[in-house]
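Annotated sample (chain length 182).
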Amino acid sequence: MRLPVALLICLTALPAAARDWRMIEEESSLAFTFRQMGSAVTGSFEAFTADISFDPAALDAASVEAVIEIPSVDTGNTERDAGIEGADWFDSATYPTARFVSTGFTATGGDGYDVAGELTIRDVTEPVVLPMTITIDGDRAVATGTLELDRTTFGVGQGDWASATAVGHEVLLELEVVATAD
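Output written by the structure step:
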């Protein structure tokens, strides 16, 4: 059976759909590094989720929305973690989550992509571009990226903590998301 030419033209004009992916929580990580009294401090957020649609051939349809649970912070020091959750820092009682919502993907060559989006922390939303490497092997994908932020842009570290004297303003985020195709 042959399809009418008009139907073939309509089918080829349909936008490509991105593939849906399910994040494997136990293999994914969201780490951060900052300077406190001149020394590097590392930590992570142990609980975060990501809704992902991605296909390198359909970047216009690609999207990601990630939600980070602030109370899952872990720097290896319970006193510091409690302070990070406190009102001067993340104020997790008022703002228990941070959120990243993509606004576009741009190929940068090979497996590289710039993922533009909006990052919301403490109810402050700012545009960011997250450079990522996304490798796909069959039904498994691994996405890695780093992003440097100024914590004060989001109101993180207020009052006595607003200056960079004790805690630096720059925070390096390191993300690895491992996912399987839905």
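Annotation: Confidence is low (pLDDT under 50) at residues 3-14.
Annotation: The longest strand covers residues 124-137.
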